């Protein structure tokens, strides 16, 4: 494991196209420390223990995943029509994403419009960090299969070239829908559906003892029905084993989403993901990005700005996305805001488990459909004043 307590983090200048949240990466000079990779064939649930103890070290040790195909560069060049600009669907810190077409059974390149559509991510040549993340992605996503994780169809490794082939997610990222000016506003029910499906993906990872470390709106991809799937496992990390409470790592992630105690100490737990989930839930409720450099003062940071409103149920409406035009169930919105507040607790131990978050959100959805208040969810006490805005909500019961 890395031994980088208090390791200084540098913030990359790769910024999100919205808001302004930046990637947090280790110092370039810092040697990477990754543990061994041993991947025996596995069956059913045995991957749980497997993933909890091993992380890939080099491609030489990367054994083929039973489910993903090794593509040649030429196959992917053909599938994307030579990485044509028209087929470019996105760009992130580490690469460009293109639309491509391959045969459903053969998985060999096919003509546009025939076979199945895939998303091909081509890594920019960015040295070792990009390579490490590529390797991590193949390792985890090639082995973890769940309806709320994006499917990794295959990968390509040829000389300096590194590519990843995913199932195509027709509605793109949550970030685009929430913050792109030209996007239609997402209705309340759809926001809840996205929150629930993303929570299910994260709860599954935690059950498999994997810490995701990069939960954010741009990594939540949407299918035609707005079901969410998590993508980008470049920073995923095996959780602590035995009596250990945390794993110590170089601080990495995205500003505005990473948990404060993790940034301060490098100590990573599943509760760091829970914090990030709270941030995304807040983005879903408010329609505001976690970091917004176009705003001034406290409004630049969504969490700092929203907390005083979250702790007082009479004020929760003030953080709600104006694009919703008031069309949301008020009690359920208060309850959802309360879940966000609990996830954002500065005391990591007091944050809920993702399985609890999931079941509370599901109860909320059911109660919205029935038109009643959910059982088991209580909003903060109405007499709580703004002075109690400290993010220690341990006194609040949900
Ligand atoms: N499987 C996919 N299907 C459809 N669109 C995708 C897929 N994967 C990525 N995209 C699109 O490409 C964009 C860029 O994705 P990418 O993961 O490279 O970067 P990012 O998540 O925006 O930023 P970062 O590099 O900080 O993680 C996404 O926001 C999304 O719009
Ligand atoms: Mg991404």
Automatic annotation (TrEMBL):
PROSITE patterns for this protein: PROTEIN_KINASE_ATP, PROTEIN_KINASE_DOM, PROTEIN_KINASE_ST
One Pfam family per UniProt: PK_Tyr_Ser-Thr
Residues involved in ATP binding: 122
Annotated compartments: Cell membrane
UniProt GO MF annotations: ATP binding; protein serine/threonine kinase activity
Region entry Disordered, spans: 1-31, 365-398
This enzyme's EC code(s): 2.7.11.1
Coiled-coil features, chain-numbered ranges: none
The name this protein goes by in its record: non-specific serine/threonine protein kinase
Organism: Brassica carinata
């Amino acid at each position: 494991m890395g031994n980088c307590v208090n390791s200084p983090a540098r913030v990359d200048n790769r910024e999100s196209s919205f808001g302004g949240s930046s990637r947090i990466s280790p110092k370039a000079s810092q040697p990477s420390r990754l543990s061994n990779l041993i991947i025996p064939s596995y069956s059913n649930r045995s991957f749980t223990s497997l993933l909890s103890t091993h992380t890939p070290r080099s491609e030489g040790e990367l054994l083929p995943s039973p489910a993903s195909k090794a593509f040649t560069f030429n196959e992917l060049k053909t599938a994307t029509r030579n990485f044509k600009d028209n087929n470019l669907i996105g760009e992130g810190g580490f690469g460009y994403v293109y639309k491509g077409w391959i045969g459903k059974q053969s998985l060999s390149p096919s003509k546009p419009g025939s076979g199945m559509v895939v998303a091909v991510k081509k890594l920019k040549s960015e040295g070792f960090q990009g390579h490490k993340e590529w390797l991590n992605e193949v390792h985890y996503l090639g082995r973890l299969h769940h309806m709320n994780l994006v499917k990794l169809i295959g990968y390509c490794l040829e000389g300096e070239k590194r590519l990843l082939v995913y199932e195509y997610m027709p509605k793109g990222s949550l970030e685009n829908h929430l913050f792109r000016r030209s996007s239609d506003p997402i209705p309340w029910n759809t926001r809840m559906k996205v929150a629930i499906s993303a929570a299910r993906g994260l709860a599954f990872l935690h059950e498999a003892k994997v810490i995701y470390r990069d939960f954010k709106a741009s990594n939540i991809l949407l299918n035609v029905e707005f079901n969410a799937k998590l993508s980008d496992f470049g920073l995923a990390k095996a959780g602590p084993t035995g009596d250990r409470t945390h794993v110590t790592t170089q601080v990495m992630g995205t500003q505005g989403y990473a948990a404060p105690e993790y940034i301060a100490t490098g100590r990573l737990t599943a509760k760091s993901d829970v914090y990030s989930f709270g941030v995304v839930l807040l983005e879903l409720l408010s329609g505001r990005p976690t970091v917004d450099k176009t705003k001034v003062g406290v409004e630049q940071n969504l969490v700092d700005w929203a907390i005083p409103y979250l702790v007082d149920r009479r004020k929760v409406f003030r953080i709600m996305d104006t694009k919703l035009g008031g069309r949301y169930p008020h009690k359920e919105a208060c309850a959802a805001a309360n879940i966000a507040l609990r996830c954002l607790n500065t005391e990591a131990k007091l944050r809920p488990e993702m399985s609890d978050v999931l079941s509370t959100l599901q109860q909320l959805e059911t109660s919205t459909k029935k038109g009643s208040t959910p059982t088991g969810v209580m909003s903060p006490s109405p007499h709580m004043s703004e002075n109690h805005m400290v993010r220690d909500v341990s006194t609040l019961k949900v």
